[in-house]
Each structure stands twice: as C-alpha cells, then as structure tokens.
Amino acid sequence: MAKTLDGLGRKLAALGIAADPRLVTVAGRVEELLELAAYVMLVQALVYAARRGRGGRPVSVPPPAGPVPFGSPRPHRR
Description:
This protein is mainly alpha-helical. It has three helices and no strands.
C-alpha cells in the first residue's frame, strides 16, 4: 500500500488527473508512516526471534488486575 501512495501526484498526472496538493501531501505523509511501521515491525520480529533462539520465554502481557468477569476463563499460571 505504501508503494501505491508513493508519488501519488505524479502517478495521477500520468493518467491526466490533477490531484489536490493537500491530498498529495497527506498521501506522502501516510506513505512515510507506513514505511516506519514496517521497520518497527521488522525490529520487533528480530527481537522476538532472538529471544526465542536463546531459549528465553516470549514476552507476554500480564493478566489484568481485578476480578475476572463471570464466565471468562482464568489464565493458566505456571
């Protein structure tokens, strides 16, 4: 999707469509944010793989504090 947004004004101009400059600016910013998110996810995957590779337990979110609503299972604790 980021590749589609990259150079949106230029791509639309090739089709004979004049894009609003604000739209082109927003599309460029969204494209940059998507690229940043891809790099963040890559780093997260590498950290996760490194932790798993050395025998460590994966990072998990602790169970919520407070009473458990009726009918919902309690998380299993080791």
